[in-house]
Amino acid sequence: MSKQALVVLAPGCEELEAVTSIDVLVRGGVKVTVASVCPDGQLQIRASRGVQLLADCPLRDVADQPFDLILLPGGLPGAEHLRDTPLLIDLLKAQARRGAWRAAICAAPALVLAHHDLIGSAHVTGYPGTEGALGAAYRDQAVVVDEANKLITSKGPGTAVLFGLAAVAALQGDAVADQVAAGLLVSRH
């Protein structure tokens, strides 16, 4: 059975992080559902640089489905909209309780995960300047994979390919992630 990932979009999300994560996951054979947190159910999202993105469905339509990974792009004010979406926070808490993967990049580790006490004992990274909100859990690395806590975090737009590859490795294994990396002409290490 194919692994399934949920990528959650909000107005003002960082488009490079969103699109790159989706693309790399799809290249890795992961079935990706893109959901919008817009309260009116709007599927078209204007990202942080004005690029229009189109979600597959409103978040509420897939809230009862189990996903192997829930991924949060960063960007502002996108991460703030994610932080302020109670349904998403409930889904992230349930994901953690069942020991399934969560991933957040850029501002999302601090503004969403740390804000809602969803980091626990995990080591994390995030956009420069968010170290204070991440506290002792912070690591100055492009991508941090905390296997024990099933949490993947990354710094920002320039690390999005590595972030996506870490998500592929978590879901599909290192060999698949290495194949995707080779096709993208990047090194995972």
From TrEMBL:
- Enumerate the spans annotated as DJ-1/PfpI domain: 3-169
Domain of life, source organism: Bacteria
Q: Which Pfam families match?
A: DJ-1_PfpI (PF01965)
Q: Which InterPro entries match?
A: Class_I_gatase-like, DJ-1, DJ-1/PfpI, Prot/Nucl_acid_deglycase
Official protein name in the record: DJ-1/PfpI family protein
Which species is the source of this protein? Pseudaeromonas paramecii
